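agent> Task received from the user: take the single chain below, predict its 3D structure, and emit structure tokens. No templates, no multimer pairing.
agent> Plan: (1) validate residues, (2) run structure prediction, (3) serialize to tokens, (4) report one or two observations.
agent> Step 1 OK, no nonstandard residues flagged.
tool_call: predict_structure(input=
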Amino acid sequence: MPQVHHMVLLKFKQDVNDAMIAEVLQAVEQLKHSIPGIDYCSSGAYSSPEGFNKGFTHGFLTTFESAAARDRYLPHPKHEIVKNALFALLEDAVAFDFVAD
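)
tool_result: status=success, residues=101
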């Protein structure tokens, strides 16, 4: 089965500080250790010199072993806890999933 890449771009509220961002992104990355089917997860700050980020300052990429693994992850209670903590800090977000060739 082909892998599924789940990209999420994040625009944090102005009152959210760097420590809060680091904590929530670490929680996102730790999901790979507690939810089966996650092959990879990494996060970071925008770093391109192109300037096409439209205010999105951070993002993360999670790679699932299959679409079925992604579909099990989405309603998983641990994902819901981290998602709710993340959403409380966000002004906006974009999620985009695609299947690897």
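agent> Step 4: summary for the user.
The chain has one domain: 4-99.
agent> Done.
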